[in-house]
Amino acid sequence: MNDKILLKDCSDLSRRIDTDRFGPFVFQPGFTVAAVELALHRVEDAHARFVASPLSQVANRLQQEILVSSVFGTNTIEGGTLSEEETASALTLDPRQVQAVEQQRALNIKAAYDLSQAAARTPGWSLTTEFIVDLHRRITADIPDEDNRPGLIRDNPKTRVTYVGDAAHGGRYKPPQYGKDIERLLSALIAWHGELEAAGVPALIRAPLVHLYYEQIHPFWDGNGRVGRVIEATLLQAAGYRYAPFALARYYLQNIDAYFALFNACRKAAEKGRDAPNQAFVDFHIEGMRQTINTLHDRVNRLVNMLLYESRIRRALDDKRINARQYTILSMLLDRGRPLPLDEVRHAPWYTSLYLKLNDKTRQRDLHRLRELGLAFLGTDNALWPGFVVPTNIKPLGKPESP
């Protein structure tokens, strides 16, 4: 990692910005060093273990899974209705094949991710207004909505007031309404981030602080949440974190009530002059990164085990230790990546076709041999498990048993 663990106080990095109509707006670190040091080290340790794992063997598969999960997560947070499977399908579409607004939303988020990843890979890249506007333009492109104004900074007329939040998550907040105030604050946020970076504040701290204040400025008519999360992910990626920055969207979705409530809680704590008003959001973010990295590490290990299992069953077929029917059964288990109830197997068309002209004894022998070789396990719940996952309770081998 290029970032250094934070070792010094940075309370002198607070900045007050005076606006024309909104009043003073204060950017402040709002956390204490002692409260974050251990959590930062835990994330660094988790990330070090993660990047040392056999990522190269499964990088393409992992990247695709994260893309789908992240687009699904960040889209659902903002009211998107596509399921994860529908999201995966939408991301494969050619733009000319798009037939629904929800599909367009998913493709737009992917386009923003592409811009983010390109920026993070660019030596010397820094956050700019132009980058943020371009993100928004991509995220909101071709979405038919009266509040959808791609790349246009919000400037409320007197007849229109923008509010953020709701009573269930700490109340409604009235962000800046005047366009020039918003532009000034957005520029100030970018400059302030540069000061934090120059002072050696780690990305694990800078990213959530920028996310927090960006949402308070709320510069666009729509799409602010999606843009804010991509900005955060870009800052983390640029600092060297792999995969987790986008996967973090799933953590936010899983903890959506806390995520929404913390924006208001931190703002109110600052208004009341409390010490370390941003501590809760920073802690929430760091814990999210730790959990996300550990989850990805587990997923890499599982994917590698699946690859080894695939090679193992192929060798078993080539060595004639199993037949083509048995190989098909194992391949189906591998594709599912989960245990299959015997009743489900019994009625599956692919399975019945394997034994169309064979008797029960043949089915019994085939299954018994797979269990004997440890290529499949039968749980006490009568589910058939692929050989790369060992169930807690394995049914004793005993006599041949047919599914």
TrEMBL record:
Residues annotated as site: Important for autoinhibition of adenylyltransferase activity: E78
Annotated binding of ATP, by residue: D222, G223, N224, G225, R226, V227, G228, R229
Residue positions of the active site: H218
One Pfam match: Fic
Keyword ATP-binding: yes
The keyword Nucleotide-binding is annotated on this UniProt entry: yes
Protein name: Filamentation induced by cAMP protein Fic
